[in-house]
Amino acid sequence: MSAPALSTGVKPPLVQSGEYIFGDTPTFRQILQQIDLVAPTNYSVIIYGESGSGKEAIAQEIHKRSKRKGKPFVAIDCGALSKELAGSELFGHEKGSFTGALNQKIGSFELANSGTIFLDEVANLSYDIQVSLLRVVQERKMRRVGGTKDIELDVRIIIASNEKLWDATRKGKFREDLYHRFNEFSIDVPPLRQRPDDIMLFANHFLQQTNAELGKYVTRYSAEVESIFKSYVWYGNLRELKNVIKRATLLTDGEQVEASSLPFEISHFNKLQFDKQPEPAAVHTVPNTIDDLTETPRTISETTLKGASIDAEYEMILRALKKVNFNKSKAAKLLNIDRKTLYNKMKQYQEFNNQ
């Protein structure tokens, strides 16, 4: 069954590019104008934006509107490249050039020859790789690791970063000469939380995609879900929104997505905000322990020991809040802390999670 057309009053997209769409909003119109300007040139382009904001899709759109359309488009996540193997992945290697190099390998730049290469999170590349990259940009030549022969390159380079590369150069993370070579044109992609008019446009697009993937016929969102989507702060941008909709569509039995199908921390987002003054002390008594609480929300960050500790506290606080229907005074008493400490703990979590 094909995906249903959604009738929500949202304007249809102007351009659909794979999993990404460009809608009729001021932000999209400005980005499309910039793409139209730079695409026919051979300029290098820097795309700035947070993780999950659609930088690769914009790079693909530049490629599709360029003279290199129909030629290779190769995307590399530089943040996923190990320091030891980055050179081999980007430039290839000759057989026997290092331990484990059992065969010759063609690198990403060679694969992209005559087309476009997209280097995401380029600031994560090591200094040595940046030196090799500078030669590619300056001379349009490269050598495979362990090789002695120069390979001519005709590749357009588009890079992306979630931090301003000029700031990275001042911190010593990125070569200034390489930055100036790349900085022929730049495009800024605002985070989804700064584009509220785009949220339902993407939400409907992702719903259509998920319907097609699952063979379902979910046609709309409830008014409550739309309100939640528009008030939630999408720190994970489009990637987070898409994953939420995939989950909600899978859990939906009828034709309408309800709030009960959303992750708890999203459907109860407003109740979990601690930016208001503490409530007056409650007069009701509550249990002294939380051993009987069985629901455990997902852990949001466990990347460091500090993060794991903060997440553990957050889980306990969230379980207590759910138990007492989000009465913060009752939750504090349940946790055997005062209300001020509860607020400080939640603010600490929010600050850590937004770093």
Summary of the model, kept short:
The protein is an alpha/beta fold and 355 residues long. The protein is 41% helix and 10% strand. It is built from 14 helices and 11 strands.
Written account of the structure:
This protein has 355 residues and is α/β, with parallel strands linked by helices. It folds into three domains: 163 residues, Rossmann fold (3-Layer(aba) Sandwich); 78 residues, Helicase, Ruva Protein, domain 3, CATH 1.10.8; 77 residues, Arc Repressor Mutant, subunit A. Helices cover 41% and strands 10% of the residues. The protein is built from 14 helices and eleven strands. A five-stranded parallel beta sheet has the order 4-5-8-3-9. Helix 5 crosses helix 7 and helix 12 packs across helix 13. The radius of gyration is 25 Å and the shape is globular. It starts with 14 loop residues before the first strand and ends with a helix. The N terminus is likely disordered.
